[in-house]
Amino acid sequence: MSPVLKTLCLGATPFVLAGCSGELSTLDPAGPRAANLALLWWVMFWGSVVLFALVMILFFLAYFRSALLARFTPAHWIIGGGLILPIPVLVLLTGTALVLGEQLLPHGQAPLRIGVEASRWEWRFTYPNGVNSAEEVVHIPAGQPVDFEISAADVIHSFWVPRLGGKIDAVPGHVNVIRLEADEPGTYWGQCAEYCGEGHDTMFFRVEAHPPEVFAAMMEDNAGE
Question: What order of strands is seen across the sheet that includes strand 137-141?
């Protein structure tokens, strides 16, 4: 690699890595379900890198060492390169996606369920004691799974807290459930991930995770609102 190209690659690395962190980064997980999604992303990324490398190796062999590949017939290329070669990679990627995806499903009953209603362009959260949150902030206990029961009042929205887990649609007249969990107390930003009108870009909310004893005290005091 030439010194100029090497310098450019090293200089660009911090800018590329900067996109892997931040309040809305899926590659900076803060909960077990988000960690599963991030792991799945990396498995898919490296799987694609392996496939790309294999194709490039064959390409360079065909271009610079064509005599080595002359013995192979078109049928060999179709069967070997088009069928046999991708199978182990695709089996690995598909199996990983199924295992990790199944772990994202809410099994059993979470100890806490919070109602969520989306409308243009705000979020309303309702705790089990019937208290509604204010200022588009929802409080949860850290280290415990929480089921969010999500619906919408007008059009389709999408509930998404990237550092805690995947997203799920908020559909009028229907309740979808997503289970999220924060490993540690802290603030985690969420947003609407489905375009819902001219105010869509302002439709953010905040998840505040507290130590369980602090959260319990807040619930006794009307969720601290």
Answer: 137-141, 204-210, 186-192, 157-160, 167-170
Q: State the 10-residue block means of pLDDT for the chain, 225 residues long.
A: 57 53 82 90 87 85 76 82 80 85 75 92 91 86 94 95 93 94 95 93 94 91 58
Give the E-state strand segments of 49-175 in sequence order: 112-119, 122-126, 137-141, 146-152, 157-160, 167-170
DSSP bridge pairs for 179: 147
Q: What is the per-residue pLDDT for 91?
A: 87
Phi, psi of 217 (to 5 degrees): -65, -35
C-alpha to C-alpha distance for 180 and 193, rounded to whole angstroms: 16
Spatial separation of the C-alpha atoms in residues 160 and 126, rounded to whole Å: 17
Q: Is the peptide bond before 46 cis (omega within 30 degrees of 0)?
A: no
pLDDT of residue 96: 85
CB hemisphere CA count around 94 (13 angstroms): 6
CB 10 within 8 A of CB 16: no
